[in-house]
C-alpha cells in the first residue's frame, strides 16, 4: 500500500504532453506510479476536477537569509513553490569573514532591499566558508527544499578583502586561483552554481557599486576554468543592456571555458532601446546554435514597484503634517488621511517643497485586489486625475488614503501591454524566473510569479495569446529544474521526487500585496495570499491544504545537482 494516492486528477505531468485523468501514487517521498485505478493508499487526496502538477521550482530567489529564520519560506510556499534557488545576482551572505559582515549587510540592503537590521538580528552569523553556511541552513526543518548558488561578490571579498570592494585593484593571479578554489569548495559542499552581477544598478546601501562590476575577463575565466575542471555547477549572470554584444562575448567565453550551462536576466527595459531584449534573445539563439547551453530568465509579467504608506517609497513622507500623524483610538492611517483638512495640508506642503515622487513615473496605476491584468494592473493614475480634475499626486494620495497601493511597472511594460512579455516567455531558450522572493521587502512583490503565470497566461488572457496549461507547467517545473541541474524533480513519473500541486484552476489567483511586520526585529515586508491551491505536497507529505500550513516540514537543503534516481 502506497503512503499517498492522489485520486482522479487532471494530470499535467511536467513533460508538456496533454493532461490526462490519472492517479498518482507516492511512497517514501517518491512517485511510484501514475496511472488509472491505482490501489488504495494509506492516505488519499481526491483530485476530481483539479489540475495535478509537479511543485513549482523557483530558480531566482534571495531567501539566503530567510532560509535561516523562516521554516515556511513564505509567501512562496503558499504559492505552490516546492523548491527555491537562492544566491542569485552575485550577492549573498557566504562565504564571509567576520570583518566583512557590515559590508555584506550593506550590499544585501542596497541591492536586494533587505533591511540591514533584519539581517543583523535574524542571522546567527556562525559561518565563514560556504560549506559552513550550508550546514547552518541544513540544521533547520522547513516546508520547501532550498538549493543555493555561491555569489561572486562574497567570493571576491572573501579572497581580496577591502581590495575586492574598491574597484581600484585587479586581483593577482594567485587571488584568481584562490577564488576558483573557493567556488569549487562551495560546489563540492553542495552549491548548485555560481552567480555574478555586471550591473551598475547594483549598489550597497552606502552607495558603493557591487564588487563584481569591474571583475575582468581573467578573473571570470579563471573561476570558469576551475568550475570546468570540477565538471558540475551552473552559472547565473545579470548585466546592463548598454553593450549586449560585448557582454555576450564575455559570457560565451565563460560558458565555453567552463563547459557548464548559464542563464542570464532577460527583461524589456524602458529607455533609449526598449527592444534590447530581442538582441538578448538573438544572442541566446546564436550561443545555443554554437553548442553552448545558455538560457534567458524572464518574468511572466512586468516587474513592478509598489508605492505604499508602509513601504520604502512613500510620496507623502516629505510632508511634516504626514509625519506628525499618529494613528490610534481605532483610527488607522488611511482614515486620518481621508480627513479633508489633512489632505489639503499634506498636498500643499508637498507642492511647496516641489516634492512629487509620482512625477518620476509616467506609468502608474491604482492596484486592484485581486490584480487581474486582463485590462492592466488597475486604473491609471493619469486617468483618475483627469476624471477627478486633480493632479496626479492628488489622485495617488487618494489611492493611498483608500488603503490601496500604487503600482509602477519598471520593466516589461513599455507599451502598456504584455506583448513583449509573451514574446520572451515563449522563446525556446528562456525559462520563467526573476521573482526575487525574499528581496525588495517593501518595494516589489513578484514572488507570486508562478501563480500569475498559470492563472493569467493559462486562463485569463484572451485567445490567441493563451498558453496551454501543460506547457506552462513544463516551463515552471521540468525546465526550471533542469536549468539548475535538479533532474530528480519537476516531472510526475515513477522514481521522481514527490512534489505535487493540486490546483483548482478556475479559482487560482493572488490577492493584492499587503505589508506585515513579521521579519526579525519587527522588520516589514510585502506578502500576499494565494487562492486555488487545494493542496501542496513536498517529498510525499501534504504541507499546505486550502492555503493553510499543515505543520509538516519535509523540506530539505539540496546539496548539489541530482539525477532522477538520486534521493536527498
UniProtKB/TrEMBL annotation:
Q: Which SUPFAM superfamilies match?
A: Composite domain of metallo-dependent hydrolases (SSF51338), Metallo-dependent hydrolases (SSF51556)
Q: Name one Pfam family in it.
A: Amidohydro_3
- Domain Amidohydrolase residue range list: 47-544
Question: PANTHER family from the entry?
Answer: COLLAPSIN RESPONSE MEDIATOR PROTEIN (PTHR11647:SF1), HYDRANTOINASE/DIHYDROPYRIMIDINASE FAMILY MEMBER (PTHR11647)
Protein name (database record): Amidohydrolase family protein
